[in-house]
Amino acid sequence: MRVRRGPAGWVGVNIEDGDKEYKESRVVITGFEDNSPATEIGLQPGDILMQVGSVKIHSIADVRNASFFLSADQKVSISVYRDGRNVTFDVIPSLPQQPRFPVFAPGYLLNGDNALRLKLEN
Known about the structure:
This protein has 122 residues and is mainly beta. The protein has a domain at 13-91: Pdz3 Domain. The protein has one helix at 60-68, and strands at 13-22, 25-32, 48-52, 55-56, 76-82, 85-91, 108-109, 116-117. The termini are far apart.
């Protein structure tokens, strides 16, 4: 059984299912979140994601599975297929970023304390 060690990790890679399968994977890197660990290691848009840690990637579901086991501040290898060859990068996931905008439910953020307080309106 695999377990995550420590707080959840975040790499900041945007992906989608591509039209073609390369070496058994259809998962294409489309971009990166600002100030993410992924922007610092050499991954590029268009890379085909092949493996994250010990998890082989075939579909986006595999990426979700692999990301569940990422731990902040613990190095993990990411393998991609680029220009006809496999390339491996090491990345140290960080803590997940906070949303860039407050998430609103049927209430409002009050008093600037980042706690969601419900305010009922007639």
